[in-house]
Amino acid sequence: MLSDIEFAAFFLFDWNPSVADILAQHPLRFDDTLKIATQAGIRHPGVRGRPQVISIDFVLDTKDQSRPQFAIQVKTSSDPAKPRTIEKLELEQRYGEGKALLGV
What we know:
Layout lengths: L3 H12 L3 E9 L2 H11 L5 E2 L2 E2 L3 E8 L6 E4 L10 H20 L2
Antiparallel strand pairs: 1-4, 2-3, 4-5
């Protein structure tokens, strides 16, 4: 886990009997996120000007057949107010929508 809040969230998910598996810091396909960022006009996350792989905080596999898998980002209450956080979440949402449309 990369933060105390992620650590706490992990324990909540682990305690839930509907959760079958927890994947933490699950990487997204770099080529896909780079393409989405370019199309959306959003600067891809990076370090010192070099694009980096984006990860989802958690991907949960569940025993619920109506929703067998879903992704969760864990943020503090002040994070979503930051414009850059909104851009990053937008990239992740578009990535997930694209995968859902492809049935992946």
